[in-house]
Specification:
Layout (H helix, E strand, L loop, with lengths): L10 H11 L10 H10 L9 E3 L5 E5 L8 E7 L5 E8 L10 H9 L3 E2 L4 E2 L4 H7 L7 E11 L5 E18 H8 L7 H4 L2 H23 L10 E6 L2 E7 L4 H24 L3 E5 L6 H10 L10 H14 L4 H12 L3 E5 L26 H14 L8 H34 L6 E10 L2 E6 L5 E6 L9 E10 L4 E5 L1
Parallel strand pairs: 1-8, 2-8, 15-17
Antiparallel strand pairs: 3-4, 4-7, 5-6, 7-8, 9-10, 11-12, 13-14, 13-16, 14-15, 16-17
């Protein structure tokens, strides 16, 4: 049994301590303020040699409601031959953050921004990532534009990348745009006020739907995991809400996959060593085959992403309540993604889950260091300059990025559990509908349906098995350890 004392738990302090415990340096080093002042004093990037002026296009961004570090904007046009030309503008962070600078060295150490739910620990100072390197609305910015054309089958061609000046005309958010594209709500105010913007977003959505259909034909995996976010009121966590996927999130995902593919193929054709984001063929494919067999399905002996996705889609239709748990099990068996040095003319293992062979993280340089590296490699190639990183350096960076991304996941999981324990603490004694998610010698585990939280059945769990629906009563929480205990 765990502590049931009233919870005056400091989530912010816990988040900071968790970052330090897992090898991060959440506070920026000495010299940061001096360097920021110098960066801010630099003149804005002006149109010149090597830049294309695209500020007149109707660019827009779609991100989370709370996002302030805007990495990309999008625009599309219908071509006479039926294809849709897509442009993705990526913030040129390197234009402000010089390699070897104090903030750059810090970013290379951290490798990623970490989102704990109660506080974000940014890879770059917010004066940059939310300010002068963010593609903020109605601000002229330097960008790397990645361009490609999408045919009726979802195949992208004519890919290229170049430097440009851009201007975000409309900062939008996933919930409003997604509900409108799904036909479930009226358009957001900015969209309702502009027929041109509405038409632009509809065209972008059409391109994204083509692209997703094409990837699924090639075996891209469709998962559905239960993700949640804390509900905040004046910096206090008062609840937990599910994160809803919709047409807007799919639109951005498809555009980023397309852009990252163009960058990877650009490096390949140019003979430039680079860092790729990969998910290897699952080593535990035999266990995935066993899981499918338990549900009456047969998968081939050798890994086959298309066969796996057919199974997943059938299970989603057959048993939607347990599909998130099946998704989570398969994701764990597939293993985590990793960063890998890919040398010129050497094959890449590809990304098993996305059913793409070429995938270089390059679209979020405000938040991820490998994207900054890709940006520097690309800009050096465009300028016909020597590569800014040796293969040895790229290999070391790739290993570091994999290590710290794993650490970031651990921090975020710990904080999700602590937030849930804090939110549920005032509700000790309340009953919840739940599904049994685990039954082992170590105990019986459940996930409540509203809100979605995971906990352990400490009394009355005998005889319960995975998949059982059960009513449980909350008996205790321990925010420090992230424990939530129920009785059945």
């Amino acid at each position: 049994m765990h502590s049931t004392r009233p919870s005056q738990f400091n989530l912010l302090s816990a988040a900071h301590a968790s970052m330090v415990e897992h090898g991060f340096q959440p506070d920026f080093p000495p010299g940061t303020e001096t360097e920021l002042a110098a960066i801010k004093a630099q003149p804005a990037v002006a149109l010149g040699d090597g830049f294309t002026d695209l500020r007149g296009l109707l660019w827009s961004s779609i991100d989370n409601d709370s996002s302030k570090d805007l990495d990309q904007i999008e625009w599309a046009e219908q071509l006479p031959d039926g294809r849709i030309r897509v442009l993705v503008g990526v913030a040129d962070v390197d234009a402000r953050v010089a390699r070897g600078a104090v903030v750059d060295k810090h970013a290379q150490f951290e490798t990623t921004s970490v989102y704990t739910g109660v506080v974000t620990f940014p890879m770059l100072p917010t004066e940059l990532s939310e300010g002068i390197t963010s593609l903020n609305e109605n601000q002229d910015r330097a960008a790397i534009v990645v361009e490609y054309s999408v045919d009726a089958n979802g195949t992208a061609s004519d890919g290229k990348a170049y430097r440009a000046l851009v201007r975000n005309r409309a900062q939008l958010a996933y919930p409003g745009v997604g509900a409108w594209l799904d036909g479930k709500a009226a358009p957001p105010a900015k969209v309702a006020a502009s027929a041109d913007l509405a038409a632009q977003l509809k065209l972008q959505d059409a391109a994204a739907q083509r692209m997703s259909g094409g990837r699924y034909q090639h075996g891209a995996l469709e998962f559905e995991t239960i993700e949640t976010q804390p509900v905040l009121h004046i910096d206090q966590v008062i609840g937990i809400a599910p994160i809803e996927r919709n047409r807007a999130t799919s639109l951005i995902e498809e555009f980023m996959i397309g852009a990252n593919g163009v960058v990877a193929r650009t490096f390949e054709s140019a003979g430039v060593a680079s860092i790729r984001r990969i998910v290897r063929v699952p080593k535990r494919w035999d266990r995935i085959v066993e899981l499918a067999a338990q549900k009456g399905a047969t998968l081939p002996a050798d890994p086959d992403s298309r066969a796996l996705n057919d199974f997943l889609l059938a299970q989603k239709q057959k048993d939607p309540d347990h599909f998130p748990d099946l998704s989570l099990a398969v994701i764990k068996l597939m293993g985590p993604g990793e960063y890998l040095l890919v040398k010129p003319n050497a094959p890449s293992p590809g990304h098993f889950g996305l059913a793409v062979q070429d995938y270089a993280h390059s679209t979020a340089p405000n938040r991820r260091f490998p994207d900054m590296v890709s940006q520097r490699l690309l800009k050096a190639w465009l300028a016909k300059a020597s590569a800014p990183y040796s293969e040895q350096e790229l290999n070391q960076i790739a290993q570091r990025c994999t290590q710290m991304e794993d650490a970031a996941r651990r921090v975020e999981r710990e904080m999700q559990k602590r937030i849930a324990a804090v939110v549920l603490h005032p509700h000790i004694g309340q009953t919840y509908q739940a599904i049994v998610t685990g039954a082992t010698d170590h105990g019986t585990f459940v996930r409540t349906l509203d809100p979605h939280v995971d906990g352990m059945v400490v009394r009355g769990g005998k005889g319960l098995d995975v998949g059982d629906r059960v009513t449980v009563k909350l008996v205790s929480t321990d925010p420090q350890r992230g424990y939530i205990d129920f009785e059945a």
